[in-house]
């Protein structure tokens, strides 16, 4: 997911999209692509909207990174769920992203194994954080199946049941 405006990171994102912000002298999205590659992913769908041309120009078709990249473009912001839905056509086998675009070293190989063992249609990697209101909340049942997403809720809204 590379389409958000990065308003909390202004002024750094005024003229540059979040995926191109440097971390250790490389765009953060490059770190994510390298992680995917290390775990055997070669085909990735990138959702873009804000300053999309800059992301496309830098990463192109992904060949320089050993990846095959396709882009799902949002003409107007669709939000998280809309962005994922917009990417569904080119995304026929696997889809991975770092939630809230954080740099991570998640074991994607184990995650794919879990996904296959469960026979799931979709698997979402989640982590607990001290203050989930900045990121959003996932309501799941006892078996870990997602029931609902609360995108950046208030404390009052987060305490309600689905």
For the structure shown, list the relevant keywords.
single chain; 162 residues; alpha+beta; Spore Coat Polysaccharide Biosynthesis Protein SpsA, Chain A; two-stranded antiparallel sheet; two-stranded parallel ribbon; 6 strands
Task: Give a structural overview.
- With 162 residues, this protein is α+β, with helices and mostly antiparallel strands.
- The chain has a domain at 7-89: Alpha-Beta Complex (Spore Coat Polysaccharide Biosynthesis Protein SpsA, Chain A).
- It has 5 helices and 6 strands, in the order ββαβαβααββα.
- The strands form 3 sheets. It has a two-stranded antiparallel sheet with strand order 1-2. A two-stranded parallel ribbon has the order 3-4. A two-stranded antiparallel ribbon has the order 5-6.
- A hairpin with a 2-residue loop joins strand 1 (22-23) and strand 2.
- The longest helix is centred in the first third of the chain and has 11 residues, at 28-38.
- The protein is globular and about 45 Å long.
SSE map:
Elements: E1 22-23, E2 26-27, H1 28-38, E3 43-48, H2 52-59, E4 68-73, H3 79-86, H4 108-118, E5 137-140, E6 146-150, H5 155-158
Parallel strand pairs: 3-4
Antiparallel strand pairs: 1-2, 5-6
Described by strand count, sense and barrel closure, the largest sheet is: 2 strands, antiparallel
- From the alpha-carbon coordinates, what is the Rg to the nearest angstrom? 16 Å
**CATH uppermost class of the domain at 7-89:** Alpha Beta
Number of helices: 5
CATH architecture of the domain at 7-89: Alpha-Beta Complex
Strand content: 15-25%
| Strand order across the largest sheet | 1-2
Instruction: Say what the CATH topology of the domain at 7-89 is.
Output: Spore Coat Polysaccharide Biosynthesis Protein SpsA, Chain A
What structural class results from the helix and strand content?
alpha+beta
In CATH, the homologous superfamily of the domain at 7-89 goes by the name: Spore Coat Polysaccharide Biosynthesis Protein SpsA, Chain A
Shape: globular
Average pLDDT across residues? 75
Q: What oligomeric state best describes the polypeptide chains here?
A: single chain
| SS elements, strand count | 6
What is the straight-line distance between the termini? Answer: 26 Å
Low-confidence stretches: 90-102
Amount of helix? 25-40%
């Amino acid at each position: 997911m590379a389409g958000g405006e990065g308003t909390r990171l202004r002024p750094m994102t005024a003229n540059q999209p979040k995926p191109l912000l440097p971390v250790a002298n490389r765009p953060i999205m490059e770190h994510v692509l390298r992680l995917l590659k290390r775990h055997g992913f070669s085909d990735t769908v990138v959702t873009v909207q804000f300053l999309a041309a800059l992301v496309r120009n830098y990463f192109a078709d992904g060949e320089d990174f050993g990846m095959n990249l396709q882009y799902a473009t949002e003409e107007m912001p669709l939000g998280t769920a809309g962005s994922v839905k917009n990417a569904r056509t080119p995304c026929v086998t696997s889809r991975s992203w770092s939630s809230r675009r954080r740099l991570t070293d998640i074991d994607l190989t184990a995650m794919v194994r879990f996904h296959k063992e469960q026979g799931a249609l979709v698997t979402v990697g989640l982590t607990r954080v001290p203050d989930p209101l900045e990121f959003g909340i996932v309501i799941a049942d006892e078996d870990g199946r997602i029931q609902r997403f609360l995108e950046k809720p208030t404390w009052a809204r987060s305490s309600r049941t689905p």
